[in-house]
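Hey,
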Amino acid sequence: MSPLTHHEILALVAPFARRGGRHVDLAATDRAERRIVFKPIEHAAHPEGTTPALRETLALDSSETGWFALTRELTTGSGLRAVLATEGNDPGELLARIEAVPAQRQFVLRPEYEIALTHQIESDGTRGGGESATRLRLTAAEGRLDGVVLRLRMSRVAGVPAELELVPASGGTIDVPEDLLAVLGWPWSRLTRSGEAWEGLLRVRGHEPERSRDAAAKLEATAQHLARTLAEPPARFHERMRAARWRVTMRRAVPLLVCLALFPATLAVPQLGLDENSVVRMLLFHAPPLLLLLFFVLPEMPRIEIPPLPRRPTAPTWRKGMAPGE
């Protein structure tokens, strides 16, 4: 790509100067990468508390083919960042799309936690009269609560679960049971440790826009659960969720129980007196490879394991190496 020229920059920033009096940040702009960055704008906190004080930054990426990508970053004083992006062939139209989405749509503020949502603005066909309709597709999110960061990453493919990550916000470690989130129901998977982080999957329903709405609702349910659980001693989690923890254990045992049931079923086939050309006989004999094939085509690979029994935690706190309240 050829670098942006001075005249190209002037032409591209004209609608931004007219609509909002935005000015180019020459120090942050990268002509070689054809990226224009505008000077940040400070926004006061919303009087009703729906958004905190925010710093807004716009960046316009352009290609020589006439295709553009506009990104808005809203950053809180604590560093929580919500991103909104859109693409098209008219920078002025892209700016209008961005400005039509209020900051309140991208933040969830509660006394116990804060969540910043990242969206992509996408076309959703046309309304009457040929007017283009748009929708917000959730691509990622980050929540902060009681010294812990909760991250969500969405897949664009329907049927593929979203990824959840739980990490300490300021050093130290957190020691949690694998079923910390799975007790919320089938959509939440068990957690596995990866360095200082805990990772899991979140199953979301349907296609857009229902998929994004479902993910956002489940993310907030996750934050509510974590805020309450991490504020209590670990033993209290076991006492309060004992029945749910046993249901998770039984759910995790299903793949193993299915595999164990195949052996007596296969041995019993000759005793059933089925015809050699019977479809039932064929399915029973070929059940193991068919199940193996099914395991590979499922969005989430079933884990054949002997699940650990739920035990009452003995540690006084979930955190290690972190000061109280961090």
